[in-house]
Amino acid sequence: MAVSIILVVVAVMLVAVLLIAVSRRRHAADDGVDSFRRQIDALSPEARRPTIDQMKPSEPPPADDDGDHDQ
Amino acid sequence: MARDLAIDLGTANTLVYMKGRGIVLNEPSVIALNRQTGEVLATGREAWQMIGRTPGYIVAVRPLRGGAITDFEITERMIRLLLQRVGVSRFTRPKVVICVPSAITEVERRAVTDAARRAGAADANLIEQPMAAAIGADLPIDEPVGNMVIDIGGGTSETAVISLGGIVALEAVRVGSFDIDAAIQNYVRREHGIAIGERTAEEIKVAIGSADPTPDENQAEVRGRDLMSGLPKTVLLTPEEVRFAIEDVVSSIVASVVRCLSKAPPELSQDFLVRGMFLVGGGGLLRGLAERIERETEVPVKMSNVPLEAVVLGAGHVIEHYEALKGMFMGARR
């Protein structure tokens, strides 16, 4: 009786360890995909726009053709 | 809490980008010291103006050569002073990303990060200059296409092929625009018998220097010290003479570009013919250089819109997206 209980406990522990290992492996693979995606997204032109645009010369104010200004 | 910083620690100039603020400092990488006491007298532009014009007790030096630290202690003091100027104190220790040449050794890498940490950085990481340049030059490096960037700095010239956020092929030579200045100095000394300083040589390069014949070429008057009599003397220098003087340096840069092209996978090589190569860095501003590279490689060469700031802008973008882009640091697991 005692032996069979021990065997069941060991079997349950083995299954638990196996499940944890499989889930960790899948998680690690997801991490790789996610971090690569995050890196590529952060390098996209849209993500870079705020940094790059700092160096663009500020546009001159639009020319007023008729020269009239509201005072 | 200090704002995180990106530093382009160049042989010629140091630029600092502050997170959320943009470029906050752009100064020559020069420090002036009192020889007797070791006291720092000036840094940056003020120290640069002293080069070759100091009394015996003052020395104005560039602590970096060929993109590497030649004097660790002076570099550390220069970085500390630069960080202080942008608001870093003993109590506000920012994360710092520093751009370095891709070809530096492990020892040189450690010297740079140690210097930054000892100067006040909480954490210091390095990023390769060509990668930072490609980000800052707004190249589509997030796409699976071949992007080629040529970064010609004061002490190094690097060419890299970049695709999908990583370096595919790389070629670097420890030759840059300071070697062009030195070649002009040596030529004038050898052929005209006069000694000129490095600032005068740089002025000659800017005024009449070119890598390929250009329209509207003029002679330049060069003033220096006659080596025989020791008296001030003026000579005339032609653009052909300057081209001849700098030919070895220019050839070495062009050869490294050709080597990098030959290392690129064929799938990416065809992209260069359509998209061209991008030139960044102060050395890239040499007249006729883009045309010379284009002539020898038969690949179009385009000048970046921000040749002097591209590297620090790229590193600045990395500091803005630190968590997402920390895998791009040198030595990071990719």
Q: CATH homologous superfamily of the largest domain in chain B? A: ATPase, nucleotide binding domain
How large a portion of the residues of chain A is in β-strands, by DSSP E? under 5%
Over the alpha carbons, how many angstroms does the gyration radius of chain A reach?
Answer: 31 Å
Order of helix and strand elements from N to C terminus of chain B? EEEEEHEEEHEHEHEEEHEHEEHHEHEHH
Mass-distribution shape of chain A: rod-shaped
Uncertain segments of chain B are none
Counted up, domains of chain B total 2
Rounded to the nearest angstrom, the distance between the terminal CA atoms of chain A is 100 Å
Helix content of chain A: 55-70%
Question: What is the N-to-C succession of helices and strands of chain A?
Answer: HH
Please identify, by name, the CATH architecture of the largest domain in chain B.
2-Layer Sandwich
> Which of globular, elongated, flat, extended, rod-shaped describes the shape of chain B?
flat
- Sequence of strands across the biggest β-sheet of chain B: 3-2-1-9-10
Largest sheet of chain B: 5 strands, mixed
What does this structure look like?
The complex is a heterodimer of chains A (71) and B (334). Chain A is mainly α. In chain A, 69% of the residues lie in helices and 0% in strands. Chain A contains two helices and no strands. Chain A is rod-shaped and about 80 Å long. Chain A starts with a helix and ends in a 19-residue tail after the last helix. With 334 residues, chain B is α+β, with helices and mostly antiparallel strands. Chain B has two domains: 5-131 and 310-328, Nucleotidyltransferase, domain 5 (2-Layer Sandwich); 141-304, ATPase, nucleotide binding domain (Nucleotidyltransferase, domain 5, 2-Layer Sandwich). Chain B is built from eleven helices and 18 strands. Chain B has helices spanning 44-48, 72-85, 106-118, 129-136, 177-192, 198-208, 239-263, 266-275, 289-297, 310-320, 322-325, and strands at residues 5-9, 13-18, 22-28, 31-34, 40-43, 58-61, 64-65, 68-69, 95-100, 123-128, 147-152, 157-163, 166-173, 194-195, 220-226, 232-237, 277-280, 301-303. Chain B has a five-stranded mixed β-sheet with strand order 3-2-1-9-10, sandwiched between helices. In chain B, strands 13-12-11-17-18 form a five-stranded mixed β-sheet, with helices on both faces. A three-stranded antiparallel β-sheet of chain B has the order 5-4-6. Chain B is flat, with a radius of gyration of 20 Å. The A-B interface holds A 35, 38-45, 47-48, 50-52, 54-55 and B 22-23, 135-136, 138, 140-142, 164-165, 305-306, 309, 313, 316-317, 320-321, 323-325, 327-328.
